[in-house]
Design goal:
A: alpha/beta; six-stranded mixed sheet; about 40% helix; B: alpha/beta; Transcription Regulator spoIIAA
Chain lengths: ~260, ~375
């Protein structure tokens, strides 16, 4: 058993290389249980690659990744599936299965890993769809009939179908209107509180960073430059970090974020 | 599944007490779902749900609690929840706020109504499609006319590229298929014709069938499968990716940029491929006639000269540009109809192949009747 202080994700010495292009080199990062970790970095610094590597969609060239205290690469397939059930992933554009309706998409993880009565699955799908803020009519629609923001919500509903302990989000609020994005942040906070969720979030949304992230990791120069909370980031002298958090957008988000973020 | 201890039912004074304990999560859901459905009481009685012993609650557990509460209330009981921790309360509130049932699939009719609906839809679809085809043909013709007036508008590089893709790269497969068909024709023909001592007529059989029909027909079918489908998939993927919309927004005409080069490339390539197929078919037939019947190459060529004239070859080749137009038309048309998802690309690609082969064969039949009537 892991105690609460153990990191839920531990990455050490990670190296990712595509041909001659080195994306990550000797990258270390730890994510603690129960925290919301935001990953920021300029375009092309490998934020999404990092996420994909942790969930096992990308084979690293070197280094180890432990999730829930186990090195995924060394697990036998059966155990690995058990591990994968404990996390949910929201891809950038939702990645919904286009031949299934939204409700059926949400039911895919339920159907694959559990043997539940159909009626209960329908009820669970309805709750999840409501939780992510989709109207009930959206449940019977196909992904091609949804807007980008709705796809993202549906993707989140699928990611939380099994009430995972760990949630990976790839730019969850990109492409959402500000009201929708704020509601999305609140939703993630609620889920995190209710389910004791750990969230690993790649984002560019400074408002999200201010509103919900406990800690932020900055990716640059092929590694994690530094990890810390917002005040820590604001005190950094590194030029990119200064520019990012002290730039006009950073300041605006800071003003908004310093107000109470609601319950 | 360890079921014991998750739910204990007891009576305390006048009230029924449901004591929940342990892990109320999705792994226990099947058991809890069934167990909670068993719980009934009299209208007007009191039910107390004691949740203080729950170790872990997830959305599914919260939903099951909410559902049993609503149902018992609906049956006229007074239900109280006690011992819901603050973290669990958040979850319960989430579930309570989102308890509306949803429809999982779009509504579908069943039985006779469904059959009638489908039949009607298909009729409308076919009629509309025929109209759309004609309209699309008009669009292409118009674009061709525009290009003919101003040849600089033709996407020359794109056209050449597609000639290579649909014509040159198809040579091996078209050649091989025709060669083998020639072999098979000669072989089967020989088996029948020797019975009448008419072996030498095998040349007639091969020449007429390959030159008039099989060469061009097989080529058209191979090209429809190879290139018609590729047209649909390429244009369809561009449609999904909004590239076609981007072209329109930039003032480019997708017909001119995408459809015309492909159509012209196919109309140039298919006659050439068909001619190549003719040669390969004769070669295969001749080889087999030599091996199995002893018809020497010299005999074969002499006989070929006697029976196959200019029009024998032309009745075959004249059909090739028409088939090419049909295949390109269907392939591009279906590609432009792709909407939304990758699934639609696959569906329409299949449809393009089936439709273009069907049309090719129908038109081939019409040609046969026509040539018969005018006597060539």
């Amino acid at each position: 058993m892991n105690s609460d202080s153990d990191p839920i994700i531990r990455i050490s010495g990670l190296r990712n290389q595509f041909g001659a292009q080195i994306v990550h080199d000797d990258l270390d990062l730890e994510v603690r249980r129960g925290e919301v970790m935001g990953i920021v970095g300029g375009s092309g610094t490998g934020k999404s690659v990092l996420l994909r590597t942790i969930v096992g969609l990308n084979q690293p060239s070197a280094g180890t990744i432990e999730v829930f205290g186990k090195n995924l690469a060394e697990l036998p397939p059966e155990e690995r599936r058990m591990q994968e059930r404990r996390w949910g992933v929201l891809f950038q554009s939702g990645a919904l299965f286009s031949s299934l309706t939204v409700a059926q998409n949400v039911q895919v993880p339920l159907r694959e890993s559990l043997d539940l009565p159909q009626r209960l699955m329908d009820e669970i799908a309805a709750v999840k769809i409501g939780m992510v803020g989709l109207p009930p009519e959206a449940a019977s629609k196909y992904p091609s009939e949804l807007s980008g923001g709705m796809k993202k919500r549906a993707g989140l509903a699928r990611a939380i179908a099994l009430d995972p302990e760990l949630l990976f989000l790839d730019e969850p609020t990109a492409g959402l209107d500000p009201i929708g994005a704020a509601a999305f942040d609140q939703l993630i906070l609620d889920l995190q509180k209710a389910l004791g969720l750990t969230v690993f979030m790649v984002t560019h949304d400074l408002d999200s960073l201010h509103a919900i992230c406990d800690r932020i990791a900055v990716l640059a120069e092929k590694k994690v430059l530094c990890v810390g909370d917002i005040p820590f980031m604001l005190s950094q002298d590194q030029p990119w970090i200064r520019e990012y958090f002290h730039g006009p957008r950073g300041r605006a988000a800071g003003v908004a974020g310093s107000q109470p973020a609601g319950a | 599944m360890q079921a014991d201890g998750l739910l204990r039912v007891s009576r305390e004074g006048g009230a029924t007490v449901l004591a929940a304990a342990g892990r109320w999560d999705i792994n226990a859901a099947t058991f809890l779902d069934a167990a909670l459905r068993q719980i009934h009481g009299e209208s007007g009685s009191v039910v107390r749900l004691d949740l203080s012993k729950i170790e872990r609650l997830d959305t599914t557990g919260a939903w099951l609690i909410f559902r049993v509460r609503e149902r018992l209330r609906g049956e006229g009981m007074a239900v109280e929840l006690t011992g819901l921790g603050p973290n669990h309360q958040v979850l319960f509130d989430q579930v309570e706020a989102n308890h509306k049932p949803v429809q999982i699939e779009p509504h579908k009719r069943r039985g006779l109504a469904r059959i009638a609906e489908r039949a009607g839809k298909n009729v409308v679809y076919v009629v509309r499609k025929a109209g759309n085809f004609v309209a699309f043909l008009g669009l292409i013709t118009e674009a061709m006319a525009r290009t003919a007036m101003n040849p600089a508008r033709l996407r020359f590089i794109s056209t050449v590229y597609h000639i290579e893709r649909v014509g040159f790269s198809a040579l091996p497969i078209v050649g091989l298929i025709s060669f083998l068909i020639g072999v098979v024709m000669a072989y089967q023909g020989a088996a029948q014709l020797t019975q009448f001592g008419a072996e030498v007529f095998v040349v007639n059989l091969i020449a007429v069938s390959v030159l008039r029909e099989l060469g061009v027909l097989l080529t058209a079918i191979v090209v429809a499968g190879r290139s018609g489908s590729a047209f649909t998939a390429q244009i369809g993927a561009m449609k999904v990716n909004e590239e076609v919309d981007a072209m329109r927004a930039l003032g480019l005409d997708p017909i001119e940029v995408l459809v015309l080069p492909r159509t012209i490339a196919l109309m140039v390539s298919l006659p050439l491929l068909a001619f190549f197929a003719d040669i390969m078919g004769l070669l295969g037939g001749g080889l087999m006639a030599w091996i199995s019947l002893g018809v020497s190459p010299a005999q074969f060529i002499t006989r070929l000269h006697e029976i196959a004239g200019f029009w024998t070859v032309m009745t075959g080749l004249i059909k090739a540009p028409v088939f090419a137009l049909l295949i390109a038309l269907v392939g591009c048309y279906e590609g432009l109809r792709v909407e939304g998802s990758a699934e639609s690309v696959g569906k329409l690609t299949t449809r393009a192949v089936v439709e273009s082969i069907f049309l090719v064969i129908v038109v081939d039949a019409i040609f046969s009747i026509f040539f018969n009537l005018i006597g060539i």
